């Protein structure tokens, strides 16, 4: 395990070194969009890490006497219909919402990468079978399949995560397989095979590093997609149970107050929008560095 | 034919899900006035609930009518039947109104009544109806053209008030109802229906109660409270039921919109599973009662729409108890003491709430926080109807935020179905495991039976009040509030009153100024 | 070409088989006994053992699952997707009734997406690297970064309530289509904007654009007449492939705007545990997806034999 991590890390580090000194980095940083994306993602991540410790109130603590209060010094984003501090709920929610997105993305990535590796490396009927599996997953509009799975399993955050993870791994598998097919005939792989290196080791040492770039780009863009997917499923009624301060749930529960207390719905709305925007910008920026061949990615939709 | 009668709709728990809509048109003042109304349920039923009427809801639309109607104080009122008498303990003779014309021009006679009950109601909808109406197939017979006899399966004094229900309607045998050919006796005729969006009715000039005022009514689907409110505010519709609570204050400020509220036959309470640990402990249940402040809930998330409740039955129902019931006022110290002496030791209680219940999410979170304040942990599960039923049928929950509502003046079935051992809520688990959900059994069963059968209003009331007192003393429920419903309308509209049963509101005299 | 067609068709058949397996298998994710669950929902009470047995026999639940599946599949191949558990309506009828509203919404959203994306993308490409470029890109991305239902309710508030120029909800008229189409279209506009920008940048590098410039034609004509026309060819094709992903957004948008389409039908069916309807819609969308991809692949191959497009959408 530690060895494979080491190999991956080495690969990434090698790539990092190679680009650090190039002019690409300067180009990337000269694009204000990339900088904006990186700043947003860093801010949200920081909020997710320290949020709960700096939040002025408990996310579930109600104060019915002070319900529906507009933004003020005591409550920078106002209070909701139960008198809870919206700002504190957002901070707690950052960890939750970002956590969900990262975990779901990680599952997709690991699942998809493994399948892609196996398919590309093994070839033959294994490849054929796995790729048809990929086709089958891609044959369903993602959110529709997720909706059915989450709906059949019942409304809870865990089921939403399962549903979103199950419907999003195929793009990784396809990407990784393609890359494996193009590298596995190369000499250094051949050499490793001849030396009797085991295939998981070859995969991790030689095949994965080549595809790490595009995979990282896809995963970055995916985080945004998953956040939006969670919000959509929450709205349909399959999301987190109260009083969980998950952003999508806050947004859909607050919508009845759009006209009389705009802050309740717009605060989580803006938070989601900025976060997704940040990951999209960052993903696009990373693509220019890590995956210059890849053109506009079609995978981005709610 | 499958049963499409829904227990939840009959017991009238809160509004259900489904969506759609169509632009409305609102003319006013003239002879050809036309109005658009948005009830709380999709009037076209989205295909799943109103099969017996070709998809049209029998509520609100006033196309079909029952024999008996309800008065403003929840008493049965002559309608297509002019009079009824109990000829013995279980037999009723109903005299029919003469000169009632169906929309196809034929006169209504006893044959149509017998057909409607025997074929449409008893045979088609199946055995659930037997228990509701206490009638079985073959028990409705014609005496002459204008008199019909009903034979109840057991003494049932509430029979006339029970059939005063929109779903117990009279239609002639010729009507092909399933295909949407609805031939009623009501003041309006069904003209056009777009599934999931709207339906349009027109004035029936030969209505037995005189020609109705409006030439045309459109009923639009919008089961989401915020969408209903938006439709009214944007001027697309004229009347909406139950606008969003969050918008009430801004609607009140508008001169062009009139708001009216009326206490309904519904009541919201937490029903407790008294056969599951640890809520089988009455001390814990009393503690929960002492944790809650009903006035606080009404004043905050309900925006004043509703009355703090002491009991589970809306006080518009004549045998409902309120003053007679013990009041558990909020006292957190007393509640904590009760928790301490109960068998509760920190486990998480499950509280179910239906996702379509207006304000349900907010109410349940207030309860959760109240219970937490006395040291009782509650895990809230907001679920859709199917999942809730799944869980309640198996008894896998501790608390459920729900309630009761009668859509007919006789509300006996609320007591029976919720609290009697053989009621719908309890029967299956009782038969399978000797338990139930909210049934104390023994004397409470006897009191409910006596109330149910008694034809003496005093005795009925006494028995039911006694039953309610025991239910509240044993804390089978946490009463929350007696419901009120609100109608928001274009301020220029006149000529409609709000009865306690919102589904009995009439549009015959609706005018534009 | 012929060989390609045959192999591509064969693959599609295999994929469709997999799609049908997944669709059918979804039901078995339900916790507990599906027959009992369905009956409880249908009868609104706990069914008796006799009723459960009768229902199992009627629905063929007694058969081994593979046999049930084959029965369902052979019916489905003949266009019979079963009947709704709650009404006796055929699932095919329900799907076909709901389809036009969804197609109308999807088509209108594409129009909105193109109408927003083409000018933005062109502006962005022509002003590459300037503030205009960045602003256009950010603007397009904001559309795709907003949860659809939030955008929808904001639009209702502004256009229906504050300005009072468009209806709140419903389906049937053109005015009622505008806000839903904008809500769904803005999400897609981001993807299309990026495509237009990239495609435009490439075309602007082509020698014939330089030629046109050198001939003294006004820049605007060069850009719009020559470059844009060429740039749009790949864009329009790829946009066609996005149709399926529009279905994702349609679910939420139909609920917000109370439009009775496929998405709303699916959500109701999922909540009612109306499994034949759920399976029917899932199978239908799967088949449409596979067929679209096949069509696009074959067309591409036919038009340009060098291209082998993956047809990847999500």
Using the 3D structure, state the CATH architecture of chain A.
Orthogonal Bundle
The name of the CATH architecture of the largest domain in chain B is Roll
What's the number of helices of chain B?
15
CATH level 4 superfamily of the largest domain in chain B: Dipeptide-binding Protein, Domain 3
Helical proportion of chain B?
25-40%
Gyration radius of chain A, to the nearest Å? 22 Å
Report on the biggest sheet of chain A.
none
CATH C-level name of chain A: Mainly Alpha
Number of helical regions of chain A: 12
Please name the fourth-level CATH homologous superfamily of chain A: MetI-like
Question: Beta fraction of the residues of chain B?
Answer: 15-25%
N- and C-termini, Cα separation of chain A = 35 Å
Keywords (chain B): Signal, Transport
InterPro entries (chain B): Peptide/Ni-bd, SBP_5, SBP_5_dom, TAT_signal
Domain Solute-binding protein family (chain B): 75-423
Pfam families (chain B): SBP_bac_5
Would you mind describing this structure in some detail?
The complex is a heterotrimer of chains A (302), B (513) and C (314). Chain A has 302 residues and is mostly helical. Helix content of chain A is 73%, strand content 0%. Chain A has twelve helices and no strands. Chain A has helices at 2-20, 23-30, 32-54, 86-122, 124-138, 142-153, 157-166, 170-183, 187-194, 199-236, 247-254, 262-290. Chain A starts with a helix and ends in a 12-residue tail after the last helix. Chain B has helices spanning 7-10, 110-125, 127-133, 159-162, 225-233, 248-252, 282-291, 294-299, 332-341, 360-373, 385-393, 412-419, 424-433, 443-453, 457-473, and strands spanning 34-38, 68-70, 76-78, 81-88, 91-96, 140-144, 147-151, 188-194, 198-203, 216-220, 239-241, 257-272, 307-308, 349-354, 378-383, 399-405, 477-490. In chain B, strands 1, 8, 9, 10, 11, 12, 13, 14, 15, 16 and 17 form an eleven-stranded mixed beta sheet that branches. In chain B, strands 4-5-7-6 form a four-stranded antiparallel beta sheet, covered by helices on one side. With 314 residues, chain C is mostly helical. In chain C, helix 8 (175-205) runs antiparallel to helix 11 and helix 11 (243-256) packs across helix 12 (262-272). Residues 306-314 of chain C have low confidence and may be disordered. Classes of the chains: A mainly alpha (302), B alpha+beta (513), C mainly alpha (314). Chains in contact: A-B, A-C, B-C. The A-B interface holds A 60-62, 64, 67, 81-82, 154-155, 237, 241-243, 253, 255-261 and B 225-226, 244, 246-247, 249-250, 296, 300-301, 355, 361-362, 364-366, 368-369, 379-384, 387.
